[in-house]
Amino acid sequence: MFSKEEFLSSINKCNNDLTPGPNRLSWRYLKVIIKNLAYLSNIINIANMCIELEHWLSHFKMFIPIIIPKPNKASYDIPKKFRSIVLLNTLGKLIEKAIGERLQFQALSKNKIYPCQLGELKQCSITDAGIVLTYLIYVDWVKNHSTSTLAFDIV
Question: Where do the structural domains in the chain lie, given as residue ranges?
Fold first, then answer.
């Protein structure tokens, strides 16, 4: 069963200015709606029933594809010349965020995350990544292996 705090925590991280999906409901409006505890309880009931019935509503599967041209590419006759993104139903995304938060918490609390998988995890910082990297290098040194590292930032 999901709690009100889980949903409030998930929605507070959402950017109000993101483009809404097919239901035309923006994060800004959804944040106002769930301030009413009756509405929030209904959303939580929907999420709990989706989990209990093991069924994701078709309404949450609807999307709008948007094509974004790549810089300096005039023609759209070759797929590599553009990017497409998908705008999903906002309420469905909120429920997915709450599920993701719960899964991450459970995986971390039971040590089910491989040490190298630190990207986008809560409670993991560059310091944690450095400690893991140092440990892996040390393990290789003990085995008389050489270690090299390549690091880059993708923006």
Answer: 4-112, 115-155
